[in-house]
Amino acid sequence: MSTTVYEAPEIKPVSVNDLALPQKRVMPNGVCLYHLAGPRKGVVRLDVLFKGGYGVQEKPLQAMFVNRMLREGAAGLSADDISRKLDYYGAWVDMYSSQGCNHLTLYTMSKHFVPLVQLLEEIIKEPEFPEENLETVKRNNKSYFMVNSRKVDVVSQRYFENSLWGDGHPLAHIVCPEDYDAITRGDILDYYGRVYNNKNCSLFVAGDVNEEMFEALQRCFGDKEWGVGEQLADVVVPEPCQQSGPRKVIVDGTMQSCVKIGFMAIESSHPDYHVFRFLTVLHGGYFGSRLMSNVREENGYTYHIEAEVDAYGVRNAFMITSETDHDNVEPLVKEVYKEIRRLVDEPIPDSEVELVRSYILGELCREYEERFAKSEVFINAWLSGESFESVNRYLETVRTVTSADLHRVAKAFLDRDDIIEIVVGQ
């Protein structure tokens, strides 16, 4: 009986090409339109961004409520009318706010783009903010807030940001139930009037886009001046006054405690920023990371632990997050600091660098395969004050970073005493 011997396929390094950058058009009224060209797939993502966000609100939750109320009635259409139109076309609109931006995202089929852009124009330019709907929205969001206030991961993020920025900072406010009660229609009208106008607006569009669709975008958002407010200056967030050290927050009845450890990291414009991002993945950004290998696999203290760099405009925070049994909090924290110390004191083996390099490139291959994910990458760069070219600079860093580079950055930015440590649980 003959036996066929098959040779294993050749293993080749992962390769990711540089991304094509968005094409910029400046429309007659000054609104910038960024287009991410690519294969036609019959679907479109449109992002409408307004400079502002939490950075210009005068009361807590103003930015969130303005964005949330836009679809509650506009141009004579009720909230039900707007929902029915979106459902009829099989479209979806998402709305959220961040530190420096109010954000609306439309997902739709290309063939329905023009009528939906017209609907979006009405929602943005002619909102009615009906009082009765506001009371319902306030009640629903407050109930959602109260539910989340029992979740240790949500509470830990609130207190981490408070320690990150420091008491009195506009981004350090810990939202409370009374903040929801205090929002009025007048607050919403005031914020809307200051922020929602062509001078503060930028558009990103990705997917199957033709000239007729570009003309619709210009007709709806780019031809004439609209809105009553003036152009906002670049949102300048005051310097953080980080409050380091341990902080315990009690939430009764919880099954586990949430641990969050971190600090204000280097800014996106720093020449070592992309090396720091690579180092963060090696430390705790994938299943085989050092933190997962130690805290989960070797010690069994947790099911999951991760390290990440979270963007707050041009500034970034380094955070390690995990949930564990209440009795395991102290040993888990000890092992986290141990792994940070290892990065500072010991060179990283070249084999580990190559493993993480392959992992990141593989993840980027998967992420960049989807057109809308590429759009998200460039929008995030724009929101962080980075150039679009920075996306490809990160790729180049991943391809070329060395063990020596990582060790140098670890010693420069991880060897510190001003570390925030938040524990939320019983």
Summarize the structure.
This protein is an alpha+beta fold.
Summarize this structure as a short list of keywords or feature phrases.
426 residues, Cytochrome Bc1 Complex, Chain A, domain 1, six-stranded mixed beta sheet, five-stranded mixed beta sheet, 15 helices, 13 strands
Describe this structure in words.
The chain has 426 residues and is of the alpha+beta class. It is built from 15 helices and 13 strands. The protein folds into 2 domains: 23-222, Cytochrome Bc1 Complex, Chain A, domain 1, CATH 3.30.830.10; 245-425, 2-Layer Sandwich (Cytochrome Bc1 Complex, Chain A, domain 1), CATH 3.30.830.10. The chain has helices spanning 62-69, 79-88, 113-125, 131-148, 152-165, 177-182, 185-195, 211-222, 273-284, 290-298, 329-345, 350-368, 371-383, 389-400, 403-413; strands spanning 23-26, 32-36, 43-51, 73-74, 77-78, 92-97, 101-109, 201-207, 245-250, 257-264, 302-312, 315-324, 420-425. Strands 1-2-8-3-7-6 form a 6-stranded mixed β-sheet, sandwiched between helices.
